């Protein structure tokens, strides 16, 4: 018989880095950046600090493995800093986390990511991570290199020294590792940074990617998101095994006390309901340690069969419509946008909140017939791979976007120069894999995302409709100018009519078609006033489209006058419609 | 230039009618009234069928095009093309639809003011020409506009065709001198006269021109006193007019031989026999109601054990054809007529069995006999195995 050995957690992950986002050189760079930024933002948030981040990614040479470059990734923050004795744990030990299983909506959850990044650097470049950190209490900053001791799953500090750092507190990490850089597209670094900017309106970030310049995007909100207190788990989310394991944390407490204090939504009333559903009353006051597996099973089944109040939704947090509406303008010049923050709700017995931001951009070089850019977020972390399996993608594809004025091939993402950002926040997001790339699609969750999308779609359609009506009017006015004279001249030639008849007919034609354009103007006015109403409603909620006062409804007389002006006025007409209403901001 | 032979006794003077129409439009405009153009509605829901008449005729529905911002483009195009056609009529010039398309393009290119009229492709200008025909209730041939010629390749040892040329001269073609080359009736069958050297027993119209040629190459027309014609798919105006001419001038039994599938029955055979909904006003002179459906019949599949196969419903084209067949059984007056019950039954059979059998399957009945197809066709005619 072969010898059975026990390996450390670090050994397991070192051999299976692909499971946690290091499956290719491209992903290695993105995941490292992601883990470092997540940590910085989480740390700032928990200390109530408005984050100022610096990100720098550059090629510094050739990689040691085939087809890779040696990449340097620096992430610096103004967070609370890390005490010297914790450095090794944070960066060099797996599953050493302040957040594991707490039931909070923080970005990081288990304490795997950053240690995995250290491992990758160590495996490909024989050096772990270089860290500089300073807390408020420290007079000087600590600088050190952290490696993972894979055999024992512990972090090892090397070259530790102190130095002067011109800031009160903060952390700077530097990884040098084998990888490859991709800036744009689904798995691109820039896509990640843009996504992070969008859902963190309170963050200021300065970044430099490869040979580009330093770019600074400043915060549009000064509220540090308050991550709500963790909530107790709801019993209906448990499986029998978990239930028994959970009980071991409670030692000799009685069963009834365990149920009431170990879970949310269990009251004295619920306990008597459990008894009605078959929980043997005698077990209630027994200590947990005296319960047999058989007993646990009976208790568990009774709990599952009893209706309980849905869990509280207090444990989720949102970016908010106002902040989203400001933040989205940081991604580029916008034609128009729609944001929706749903009320927190329960899906599969877990509190969830869905937020959606849809926007059309002027200058993102996106084709009208290519799919929209999709940004997915889970607990404010961008998800960038395997979108086809994700609950968010499914929900978008299930909505009929044609009804809102967007093109959409059957069962696919809609088309156009839009960004569709969908964010899910929940203390218990179910991912399909350990590298947090896709959200598992349960029916309830997809339905909830769908509702948010439909609401946002309706708002967006007001903008699009107005634009369609504008184009319609413009087309109609152009038609009158172009075809009217040709029609009359043709008729006059066929019957050899005198000039006077031709003139009279031309006047008559203008009158007729003027009436038609009045109808088109009325349509446009109706669409404009609907949009205006929506904007006013949104303004009360703090969402500013930045142009309300300028939406003056153009008077129909003006346009008819223009319409009946002689040939050659087309350009001025067009210009006027655009300049009177800065809201349009559309293609000319 | 001599006058072209006309298709029918035309009751109206086209240029005069067109001028009255233009004058009315201009008058309406002068008094700020919206001019309206009316044309026969050319669709199945405005098609009538009477088996005694034998082809689809128009009902009383019309399409009204009233001038407004959306239709002004169409009306301007109609007037533009009408002017060209009237000029052609006046000068006695003739053009195909395709030629007219390029003529329009040329005129538009040469005059920047006309640019908004420009046609993106030929179907756009074709639609305008058809609309003018439907509006004046005249054939487009009567507007001196002819479709491109396609199909109608004809073989016979007995047939003699006399063509009246534009200058009044006559050309005589003896089809027996052409070998295995076909005679092409072109798109003006009305200018032809037919005569048989010897009694012609029947005329066989084959869906596939290739198969028609194969039969002739193997000696079909040598052994039989007949006419063999290739339809080349959905029959063009030329093929339809030519078939009508053979029917009227020679009075011989006519048979159609094609695939056993819904498309052939509805689109090819029905158009040949009774015309189409799109050409309601022309069907009288562009259909040959005497043509019988020789096959492939469902009974042939069984009797000769013909190779056939299942229709793939996942194929969008096939699925569409089946859906159209169901639709035809409910809405097509031709298939609804009692006289055509046997044809409708074939459609029903096709929908139920979801199979198809090609005309070429006859070649597989006896691989050792190269003229087996001919034998089967003759046997079927003799037995009266047609619908």
Helix and strand arrangement:
The complex is a heterodimer of chains A (588) and B (387).
Chain A (H helix, E strand, L loop, with lengths): L8 H7 L9 H23 L4 E11 L6 E9 L6 H9 L20 H13 L3 E6 L6 E9 L4 E10 L6 E10 L9 H11 L4 E6 L5 E3 L22 H9 L6 H8 L5 H9 L16 H13 L15 H7 L6 E8 L3 E3 L2 E12 L11 E6 L2 E3 L7 H8 L19 E8 L17 H52 L4 H42 L15 H8 L6 H11 L8
Parallel strand pairs in A: 1-7, 12-14
Antiparallel strand pairs in A: 1-2, 2-6, 3-4, 3-6, 4-5, 7-8, 9-11, 10-11, 11-14, 12-13
Helix pairs in contact in A: 2-4, 11-12, 12-13, 12-15, 13-14
Chain B lengths: L13 H17 L5 E5 L6 E3 L6 E3 L3 E5 L5 H20 L3 E2 H14 L11 H15 L8 E2 L6 E4 L2 E6 L5 E5 L17 E5 L5 E5 L2 H9 L2 H4 L2 E5 L6 H14 L3 E4 L4 H13 L17 E4 L2 H6 L5 E2 L5 H16 L1 H4 L4 H13 L1 E2 L15 H12 L4
Parallel strand pairs in B: 5-6, 11-12, 11-13, 13-14
Antiparallel strand pairs in B: 1-4, 2-3, 7-12, 8-9, 8-10, 15-16
Helix pairs in contact in B: 1-2, 2-4, 3-4, 10-12
Q: Can you characterise this structure?
A:
The complex is a heterodimer of chains A (588) and B (387). Chain A has an eight-stranded mixed β-sheet. Chain A has helices spanning 9-15, 25-47, 84-92, 113-125, 189-199, 240-248, 255-262, 268-276, 293-305, 321-327, 391-398, 443-494, 499-540, 556-563, 570-580; strands at 52-62, 69-77, 129-134, 141-149, 154-163, 170-179, 204-209, 215-217, 334-341, 345-347, 350-361, 373-378, 381-383, 418-425. Chain A folds into four domains: 9-217, 2-Layer Sandwich (Heat Shock Protein 90); 235-305, Helicase, Ruva Protein, domain 3 (Orthogonal Bundle), CATH 1.10.8; 321-460, Ribosomal Protein S5, domain 2, CATH 3.30.230.10; 477-580, no CATH class. The longest helix of chain A is centred in the last third of the chain and has 52 residues, at 443-494. By secondary structure, chain A is of the alpha+beta class. Chain B has 387 residues and is α/β, with parallel strands linked by helices. Chain B folds into two domains: 14-146, Arc Repressor Mutant, subunit A, CATH 1.10.10; 153-383, Dna Topoisomerase Vi A Subunit, Chain: A, domain 2. Chain B has helices at 14-30, 72-91, 97-110, 122-136, 209-217, 220-223, 237-250, 262-274, 298-303, 316-331, 333-336, 341-353, 372-383, and strands at residues 36-40, 47-49, 56-58, 62-66, 95-96, 145-146, 153-156, 159-164, 170-174, 192-196, 202-206, 226-230, 254-257, 292-295, 309-310, 355-356. In chain B, helix 2 crosses helix 4 and helix 10 runs antiparallel to helix 12. The longest helix of chain B is centred in the N-terminal third of the chain and has 20 residues, at 72-91. Chain B is globular and about 75 Å long. Chain B starts with 13 loop residues before the first helix and ends with a helix. The model of chain B has no long low-confidence stretch (mean pLDDT 91). Chains A and B meet through helix 12 and helix 13 of A and helix 1 and helix 2 of B.
């Amino acid at each position: 018989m072969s010898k059975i050995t026990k390996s450390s957690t670090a050994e397991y992950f070192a051999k299976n880095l692909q499971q946690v986002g290091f499956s290719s050189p491209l992903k290695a760079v993105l995941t490292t950046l992601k883990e470092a930024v997540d940590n910085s933002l989480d740390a700032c948030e928990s200390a109530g600090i408005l984050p100022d981040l610096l990100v720098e990614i550059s090629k510094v040479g050739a990689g040691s493995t085939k087809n890779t470059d040696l990449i340097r990734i620096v992430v610096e923050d103004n967070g609370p800093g890390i005490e010297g004795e914790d450095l090794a744990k944070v960066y060099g030990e797996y599953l050493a986390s302040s957040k594991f299983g707490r039931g909070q909506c923080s970005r990081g959850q288990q304490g795997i990511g950053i240690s995995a990044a250290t491992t990758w650097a160590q495996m490909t470049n024989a050096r772990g991570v270089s860290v500089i950190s300073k807390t408020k209490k420290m007079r000087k900053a600590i600088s050190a290199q952290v490696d993972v001791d894979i055999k024992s799953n512990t972090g090892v500090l090397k070259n530790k020294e102190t130095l002067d750092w011109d800031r009160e507190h903060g952390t700077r990490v530097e990884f040098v590792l084998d990888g490859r850089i991709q800036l744009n597209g689904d798995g691109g670094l820039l896509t990640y940074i843009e996504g992070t900017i969008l859902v963190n309106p309170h963050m200021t970030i300065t970044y430099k990617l490869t040979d580009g310049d330093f770019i600074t995007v400043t915060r549009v909100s000064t509220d540090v998101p308050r991550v709500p207190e963790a909530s107790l788990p709801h019993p209906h989310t448990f499986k029998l095994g978990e239930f028994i394991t959970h009980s071991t944390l409670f030692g000799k407490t009685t069963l009834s006390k365990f149920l009431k204090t170990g879970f949310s939504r269990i009251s004295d009333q619920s306990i008597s309901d459990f008894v009605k559903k078959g929980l043997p009353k005698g077990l209630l006051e027994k200590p947990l340690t005296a319960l047999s597996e058989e007993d646990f099973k009976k208790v568990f089944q009774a709990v599952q069969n009893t209706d309980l109040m849905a869990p509280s939704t207090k444990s989720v947090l949102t970016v908010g419509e106002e902040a989203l509406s400001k933040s989205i303008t940081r991604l580029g010049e916008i034609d128009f946008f729609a944001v929706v923050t749903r009320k927190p709700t329960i899906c599969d017995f877990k509190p969830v909140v869905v937020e959606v931001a849809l926007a059309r951009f002027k200058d993102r070089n996106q084709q009208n017939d290519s799919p929209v850019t999709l940004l997915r977020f889970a607990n404010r972390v961008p998800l960038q791979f395997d979108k086809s399996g994700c609950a968010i993608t499914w929900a978008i594809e299930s909505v009929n976007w044609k009804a809102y004025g967007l093109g959409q091939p059957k069962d696919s993402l809609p088309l156009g120069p839009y960004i569709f950002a969908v964010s899910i926040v929940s203390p218990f997001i179910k991912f399909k894999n350990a590298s947090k790339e896709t959200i598992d699609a349960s029916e309830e969750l997809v339905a909830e995302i769908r509702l948010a999308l439909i609401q946002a779609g309706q708002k967006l359609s007001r903008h699009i409709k107005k634009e369609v009506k504008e184009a319609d009017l413009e087309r109609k006015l152009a038609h009158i100018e172009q075809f009217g004279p040709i029609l009359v001249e043709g008729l006059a030639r066929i019957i050899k009519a005198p000039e006077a008849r031709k003139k009279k007919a031309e006047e008559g034609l203008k009158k007729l078609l003027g009436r038609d354009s009045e109808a088109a103007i009325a349509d446009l006015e109706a669409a404009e006033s609907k949009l205006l109403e929506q904007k006013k409603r949104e303004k009360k909620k703090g969402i500013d489209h930045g142009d309300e006062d300028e939406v003056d409804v153009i008077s129909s007389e003006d346009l008819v006058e223009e319409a009946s002006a002689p040939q050659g006025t087309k350009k001025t007409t067009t210009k006027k419609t655009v300049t009177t209403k800065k809201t349009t901001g559309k293609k000319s | 230039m001599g006058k072209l032979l006309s298709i029918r006794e035309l009751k109206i003077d086209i240029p005069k009618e067109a001028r009255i129409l233009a004058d009315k439009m201009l008058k309406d405009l002068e008094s700020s009234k919206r001019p309206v153009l009316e044309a026969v509605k050319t669709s199945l829901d405005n098609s009538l069928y009477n088996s005694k008449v034998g082809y689809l005729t128009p009902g009383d529905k019309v399409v009204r095009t009233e001038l407004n911002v959306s239709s002004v483009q169409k009306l301007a195009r109609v007037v533009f093309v009408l002017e060209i056609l009237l000029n052609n009529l006046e000068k006695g010039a003739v053009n195909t639809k395709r030629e007219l398309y390029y003529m329009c393009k040329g005129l538009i290119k040469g005059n920047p003011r006309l640019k908004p009229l420009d046609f993106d492709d030929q179907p756009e200008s074709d639609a305008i020409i058809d609309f003018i025909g439907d509006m004046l209730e005249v054939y487009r041939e009567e507007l001196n506009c002819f479709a491109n010629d396609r199909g109608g390749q004809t073989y016979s040892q007995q047939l003699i065709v006399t063509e009246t040329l534009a200058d009044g001269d006559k050309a005589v073609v003896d089809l027996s001198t052409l070998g295995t080359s076909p005679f092409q009736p072109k798109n003006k069958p009305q200018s032809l006269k037919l005569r048989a050297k010897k009694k012609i027993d029947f005329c066989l119209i084959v869906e596939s021109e290739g198969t028609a040629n194969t039969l002739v190459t193997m000696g079909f027309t040598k052994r039989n006193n007949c006419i063999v014609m290739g339809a080349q798919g959905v029959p063009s105006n030329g093929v339809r007019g030519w078939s009508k001419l053979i029917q009227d001038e020679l009075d011989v039994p006519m048979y159609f031989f094609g695939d056993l599938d819904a498309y052939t029955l509805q689109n090819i055979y029905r158009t040949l026999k009774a015309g189409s909904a799109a050409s309601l006003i022309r069907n009288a002179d562009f259909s040959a109601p005497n043509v019988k459906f020789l096959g492939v019949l469902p009974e042939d599949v069984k009797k000769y054990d013909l190779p056939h196969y299942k229709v793939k419903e996942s194929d969008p084209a096939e699925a569409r054809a089946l859906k159209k067949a169901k639709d035809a059984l409910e809405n097509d007056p031709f298939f609804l007529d009692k006289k055509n019950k046997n044809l409708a039954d074939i459609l029903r059979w096709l929908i139920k069995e979801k199979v198809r059998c090609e005309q070429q399957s006859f070649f597989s009945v006896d691989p050792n006999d190269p003229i087996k197809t001919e034998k089967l066709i003759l046997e079927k005619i003799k037995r009266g195995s047609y619908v």
